[in-house]
Amino acid sequence: MLHTSAPRSSGIVLEPELPICQTDLPLDWYQEEFRPYAEEYLALPDRTPGSVLPWLDRYALPAREHFGDSLLLLAHFYMGGEIVKLVERYGGTIADSYVLALQAARNPEKRVIVESAVHFMAETIAILSGEHQSVWITNPKAGCTMEMLAKEWMVAPAAEQLVARYGDRLAVVAYMNTGGALKALAGRTGGAVCTSSNAHKVVARVRAEGKQVLFVPDHHLGRNTAWKLGIPLERVVQLAEPRAWAAGLKLSDGCVPGGLAALDRAEMILWGSSCGVHTVFRKEHVAWWRARGWQVLVHPESPLEVVQAADGAGSTDFLWRAIAAAPPGARLAIGTEGHFVRNARQQALRRGVQVVHLTEIPEPGFPAAGCGCATMSRNDPPHLAGMLDLLRRGAAPDLNRVLAGDVVDEVSGRRERLDDAERATLIADARRALERMIEITESSA
Ligand code: SF4
Question: Which of 376, 379, 408 to mutate to test the pocket of ligand 1 (most atoms within 8 A of CB)?
Answer without folding.
Answer: 376
